[in-house]
């Protein structure tokens, strides 16, 4: 499968699975669950995810990026995956009762039991999914992710409507992992490492150990806000924070997840061929910031009318938190694939050191911010993002060799595009309707105008995306022309 076709399938996967999950969250939040109930689930999910980060053990990156992956290495990797993942799942189940004691809420116990049980199915999907990505078979990846999203949505909404409260979210998470395991196994021919084989596992363990430590740091940085805000500010505060965080992160994943999953094996191939990554990396920077920065800027500016329209008046406190977290995500997006690129170039040690330092900074800042509520915690997260950028940008330049002038030029072009995208909405706020009184329908005109101005800015500034947009338009017009000619002159 070509890179363009792979990106198309991966993008469709992200878009459809995001749409399903997003629609489900709106239905559940507006009709069935309160911020406090969502907050209770967020604490349980964050705690299990913090432990479950050990499960994947870096096997996805190992399988996709390993230069010579034979049958024996694959069998060993799958065996290690099962042994580690099931061990971690048992630890999660054992931690359910202590966590409920720690937070003084017995409702956390059944939540963690159900969420923890879902991780028993995770290892059955890790290796099959990685093999499909290594083979650039993103059609199968589409089937896996969309089936999992549909299953989660159906189970969650059904149980929430039946009055199961936050347990509906937990059972939805379990059903999602079962569906992912079944579909990934089906698409890969039902592979299992029976009998388990651990001969030659030292290479897998070395890679997995370093990768797992990296994932622990990353998980602490991403999951600790829910735990810290929940422990200090309470369930309602963490419910609002997690909803805002979910919107910002889901938008980024929607827009970048497809490119990440496709470009990792593509960059691995370039590395194997001895090619420089300087220009490809700047192209990634230009593409990421050129399209994601305007979207996140729009999310920040439109946060109040958007949240009010989607989730209702009881969730409006999400808006200021969402604006801050969108800014934080803009900073993270400025350095795409900051972990994958160093790993491909053999610098896992450098990633571990920098991520460890950044994680400590994140926890300290969040502890300080959470004492003053969810909005202050979000501001602390922005400060963490800025600190992370400072310690990573020099590191990535040393690895890839990109030029500072090229990086700053890409940032400048993308900032102009982002400013053009939000200018009509800011003008609307100033002269027509303030954000607190604006309805969802009123967003359409300024947002649509902003999209047109963003497209114009791409061509005026010479953004790297302009060539791709031009190609997309030409391809679309060409296909429309072919179909029109075929309809006017059918074959006899």
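Sequence proposed for the structure above (492 residues):
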């Amino acid at each position: 499968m070509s890179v363009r076709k792979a990106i198309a399938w991966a993008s469709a996967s992200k878009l459809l699975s995001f749409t399903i999950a997003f629609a489900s969250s709106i239905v559940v939040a507006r009709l069935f669950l309160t911020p406090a109930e969502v907050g209770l689930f967020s604490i349980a999910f964050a705690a299990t995810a913090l432990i479950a980060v050990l499960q994947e053990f870096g096997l996805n990156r190992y399988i996709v990026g390993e230069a010579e992956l034979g049958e024996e290495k694959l069998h060993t990797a799958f065996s290690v995956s099962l042994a580690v993942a099931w061990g971690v799942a048992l630890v999660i189940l054992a931690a359910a009762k202590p966590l409920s004691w720690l937070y003084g809420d017995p409702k956390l116990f059944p939540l963690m039991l159900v969420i923890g049980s879902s991780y028993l199915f995770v290892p059955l999907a890790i290796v099959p999914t990685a093999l499909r990505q290594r083979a650039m078979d993103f059609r199968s990846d589409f089937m896996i992710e969309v089936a999992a999203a549909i299953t989660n949505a159906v189970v969650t909404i059904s149980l929430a409507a039946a009055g199961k409260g936050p347990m509906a979210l937990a059972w939805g998470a379990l059903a999602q992992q079962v569906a992912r395991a079944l579909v990934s196994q089906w698409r890969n021919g039902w592979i299992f490492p029976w009998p388990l084989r651990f001969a030659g596992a030292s290479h897998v363990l070395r890679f997995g150990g370093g990768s797992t430590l990296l994932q622990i740091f990353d998980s602490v940085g991403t999951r600790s806000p829910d735990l810290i805000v929940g422990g200090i500010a309470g369930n309602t505060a963490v419910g609002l924070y997690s909803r805002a965080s979910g919107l910002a992160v889901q938008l980024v994943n929607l827009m970048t997840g497809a490119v990440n999953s496709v470009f990792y094996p593509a960059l691995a191939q370039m590395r194997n061929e001895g090619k420089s990554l300087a220009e490809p990396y700047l192209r990634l920077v230009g593409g990421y910031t050129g399209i994601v920065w305007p979207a996140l800027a729009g999310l920040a500016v439109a946060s109040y009318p958007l949240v009010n329209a989607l989730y209702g008046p009881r969730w409006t406190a999400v808006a200021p938190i969402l604006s801050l977290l969108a800014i934080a995500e803009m900073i993270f997006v400025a350095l795409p694939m900051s972990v994958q690129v160093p790993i491909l170039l053999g610098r896992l040690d450098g990633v571990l050191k920098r991520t460890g330092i950044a994680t400590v900074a994140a926890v300290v800042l969040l502890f300080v911010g959470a004492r003053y509520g969810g909005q202050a915690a979000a501001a602390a997260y922005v400060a963490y993002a800025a600190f992370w950028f400072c310690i990573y940008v020099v590191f990535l330049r040393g690895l890839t060799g990109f030029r500072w002038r090229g990086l700053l030029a890409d940032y400048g072009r993308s900032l102009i595009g982002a400013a053009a995208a939000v200018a009509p909405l800011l003008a609307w706020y100033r002269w027509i309707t303030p954000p607190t009184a604006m309805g969802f329908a009123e967003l359409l005109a300024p947002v649509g105008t902003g999209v047109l101005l963003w497209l114009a800015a791409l061509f005026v500034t010479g953004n790297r995306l302009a060539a791709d947009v031009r190609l997309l338009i030409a391809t679309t017009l060409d296909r429309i022309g072919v179909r029109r000619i075929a309809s006017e002159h059918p074959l006899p």
